[in-house]
Batch of 2 targets.
Target 1
Amino acid sequence: MTEYLLIALALLGVLILGALGLVVPKLRRRPEPPLPREVETRAEEDLAGPPVLAPEAEVSTGILVEPPVIEAPPLEVPEPTAGRLVRLRSRLSRSQNVFGKGLLGLLSRDHLDEDTWEEIEDSLITADVGIDATRDIVDRLRERTRVLGTRSAGELRALLAAELVNALDPSLDRSLNTAPKDGVPAVLLVVGVNGAGKTTTCGKIARVLVADGRSVILGAADTFRAAAADQLETWAGRVGAETVRGPEGADPASVAFDAVKRGIETGVDTVLIDTAGRLQNKVGLMDELGKVKRVVEKHGPIDETLLILDATTGQNGLEQARVFTEAVNVTGVALTKLDGTAKGGIVIAVQRKLGIPVKLVGLGEGKDDLAPFDAVQFVDALLGTEAPGRDA
Ligand SMILES: Nc1nc2c(ncn2[C@@H]2O[C@H](COP(=O)(O)OP(=O)(O)OP(=O)(O)O)[C@@H](O)[C@H]2O)c(=O)[nH]1
């Protein structure tokens, strides 16, 4: 009996397990609840990227999408050129130490003996005044201090200033020939060795001219250094001037020619032509410069050829300068980087050796750190003195 009961219980157990086996898989396969609509859409977008509106959708909105307006930066108003040398006089601080403090200190010694005069000579030579000019200056100073006898600090300062101004020949014409003639623009050609500051000075001159009310076009005939044309275009753009440029590696003479042509067509006052830096001992490069000059002159004579000289190269710069004067007819010198040297006397040496006036001086990397040169103001700045009645 007990056996029948056990068998019945076992059969019941098997039946229950069988029933459970049919139900559980069904429960496992039950579908997951649907995602909310927005979640679904976001998932699709993640895969497919941002939605692309069908053209009809754009049209159907009826809203015109305006392209964004990119505003040109406002044109700059360069600083007036008058009084720039006076404003920038502190940039000559390194040279001021030699001339103002050094030389005036030596001259005010109680006894101006032979040794002191030799020290004075050495100071001038160290400041790159050049040997011939130094001898002249010292001889004249010796003579005048002997004749004068009394030597107050003020008198000595005035004597030294007069001799330095005299050595700079204040009678030279330092104006830049940039005025148009008979409606034809003046042409200014910028030449010099690599890295002297040609492109920068070209840009600064454009600002000087614009500040003085002239219209300019810049010609990027430095087709050798790819960035030079961009650099020039940036300078021009700031003051609203046009730049004429050619493809990289183009013939510089043809770019220069096109720039002058464009200047004539548009009736600007001045065309400034930046040329590639070249070593003065490379015959081919110097010939190329001669070609630029000849080709530009098919439009008419060049009005100003400005040689850019780096003041920090000292007497080496003079040799470079001499070779350039043989290749093209240099009519003026722009002496750059005078802020970076104690050798401000190079201005005297350049003029004396070349017989070409220094017309501009670069006194910093700032946009308006280029000043028209003036002998009296320059000497005042070197000696750290104020000329009476002068604008500050
Ligand atoms: N401190 C100082 N730096 C200057 C002055 N003038 C130019 N420079 C710097 O000199 C460097 C060379 O100037 P660039 O105008 O590129 O010289 P470049 O003669 O056109 O050079 P290349 O095209 O390679 O021959 C730049 O870093 C200028 O900022 C100046 O008066 N003072």
Target 2
Amino acid sequence: MALDDKQLEGAPKDYNKKVQRNSSFFRALKNSLHGIWMILVRERNLRIHIFLGFLILIAGLHYGLVRSDWLWVTVAVFTVISSEFLNTIIEALVDLVVEKRYHPLAGLAKDVAAGGVLAAVAFEIIILLIVFQPYVWRQFGIVTNFSQFIHNFSR
Ligand SMILES: Nc1ncnc2c1ncn2[C@@H]1O[C@H](COP(=O)(O)OP(=O)(O)OP(=O)(O)O)[C@@H](O)[C@H]1O
């Protein structure tokens, strides 16, 4: 991943460059936006999650979700997006430390980071199922009671 990027492969030549603190709020903002642009360009999975986020937004508008539903859906979508950011940071740091050498700990760090994304996606799916299922059933004229269903299930 990270080391395939030609622009970043050239980075070691810049070792003598000094790193400066962000001198102003706008400079910090510009660097943050650059970070978002970099991950958007490089990480296909993040682009897929953002695309799915737009589809969820359209579905939410279609079904007319209530405020509390929107809160949960927003938390779920941003949890996945944040986990992709974290995954990319860990991959970049691991590649920086081990370069292209094999190390079991490097593999462990990357696999655990990827597992974190999977856990976040599982969280998102559970939230989406709980939030959307009454709206979908209602479309077919079926009124459900989720709490009653869970209660009956546990008996
Ligand atoms: N330096 C390394 N040493 C040992 N195993 C590694 C190393 N780099 C990668 N791996 C293993 O190869 C897998 C794929 O690594 P890679 O850097 O391509 O991440 P990726 O999962 O493809 O990234 P992306 O999230 O961008 O798809 C890792 O999950 C890890 O198991």
